[in-house]
């Protein structure tokens, strides 16, 4: 689960060493430049996502049903924030694991997501019973 935290730095070091062995110091400069650009791309993407989310109310989503359909196990919190374009309403105390976030739409339907280590583990859709649906269901 935490392989990314170890694998990316090791792969970066291997890339720089391989570049040095193949091309010398110009290879190191090219490899570190490429790694720096890769980090800048991820940082820019994160800032764009958070800028979009800053303009919306916390915990709001256009359609909870559509969010429920799009969610996949293992998605990162940043990916879910990008899909909803809003920060989730934190239901647990800050810094505890697992973290629970909720996104609610205009019909008071909501999706509660549980994240462990920043990855989506499970989610649940709640849809309130509307009076129109209750009357239509009754014979």
Key phrases:
139 residues; alpha+beta; Beta-lactamase Inhibitory Protein, Chain:B, domain 1; 2 domains; four-stranded antiparallel beta sheet; 4 strands; 17% strand; elongated
Description:
The protein has five helices and four strands. It has two domains: 3-52, no CATH class; 58-132, 2-Layer Sandwich (Beta-lactamase Inhibitory Protein, Chain:B, domain 1), CATH 3.30.1450.10. The model has no long low-confidence stretch (mean pLDDT 90). The protein has a four-stranded antiparallel sheet, covered by helices on one side. 53% of the residues lie in helices and 17% in strands. The N and C termini lie far apart (51 Å). The longest helix has 30 residues, at 25-54. The chain is of the alpha+beta class and 139 residues long. Helix 2 packs across helix 4.
Brief overview, please?
This protein is of the alpha+beta class and 139 residues long.
CATH architecture classification name of the largest domain: 2-Layer Sandwich
Output the CATH class name of the largest domain: Alpha Beta
- What average pLDDT do the residues reach? 90
Largest sheet: 4 strands, antiparallel
CATH topology of the largest domain: Beta-lactamase Inhibitory Protein, Chain:B, domain 1
Rounded to an integer, what's the Rg over CA atoms? 21 Å
Number of domains: 2
Q: DSSP helix count?
A: 5
Number of strands: 4
Briefly note the structural class of the backbone: alpha+beta
Q: In what order do the strands lie side by side in the largest sheet?
A: 1-2-3-4
Report helical residue fraction.
Answer: 40-55%
Q: How large is the share of residues in beta strands?
A: 15-25%
Low-pLDDT runs of 5+ residues are: none
The 3D shape can be described as: elongated
N-to-C series of helices and strands: HHHHEEEEH
Distance between the termini: 51 Å
């Amino acid at each position: 689960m935490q392989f990314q935290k170890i694998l990316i730095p090791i792969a970066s070091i291997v890339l720089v060493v391989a570049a040095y062995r193949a091309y010398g110091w110009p290879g190191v400069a090219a490899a570190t430049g490429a790694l720096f650009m890769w980090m800048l791309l991820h940082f820019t993407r994160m800032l764009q996502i958070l800028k979009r989310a800053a303009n919306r109310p916390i915990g709001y989503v256009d359609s909870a049903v559509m969010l429920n359909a799009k969610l996949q196990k293992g998605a990162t919190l940043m990916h879910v924030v990008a899909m909803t374009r809003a920060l989730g309403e934190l239901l647990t105390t800050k810094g505890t694991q697992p973290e629970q976030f909720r996104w609610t739409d205009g019909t008071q339907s909501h999706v509660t997501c549980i994240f462990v280590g920043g990855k989506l583990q499970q989610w649940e859709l709640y849809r309130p019973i509307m009076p129109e649906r209750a009357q239509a269901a009754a014979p």
